[in-house]
User: What shape does this take?
Amino acid sequence: MHKFPYNNDPDVVAMKIGLIDITNSTHLSQHKSLISMDELCHIIASIPEIDNRIKVGDPEVVNEIARSNGNINLFSFATKYCCYHNRNLYGNDDYSILDTVLKEYLPIYFNDITKNQIQKWQSGFEYKKYNDYITKKLDELRITTTNRKRKFDHFIWYKNR
Assistant: This one.
């Protein structure tokens, strides 16, 4: 990402999408009848001020990517796209990833959340509520280590995959 930091060129965005898809098994190709990779690249590249917004942790960018073309909800992919860009390029830890492992196991670790609530946030494109929930839980647990959202995601993922 340091070599290609900007998200305004669809070809560069395509490389980033491919890398995230391969390393995170997002299975984007399974949804090719709903959205093409070319279309997704152009959607991401056309988001106004995307780079500055990811840099400052704007949660609405996740929702804009997730809504994509209106045919598919790419919430999980969008959280990863923003998280990796925010972390790897800017050294920030503003985004929490949501994937099937987190959706399944967060309710096991925390009794104040359900899979149904997480699904509502995902279906309703309410990333800020999900991200704020993770921040609140980390604060309650007094987890103050650097990159705590990434480390929390790793912990849940590796303990339960």
The mean pLDDT is 94. The two ends are 27 Å apart (CA to CA).
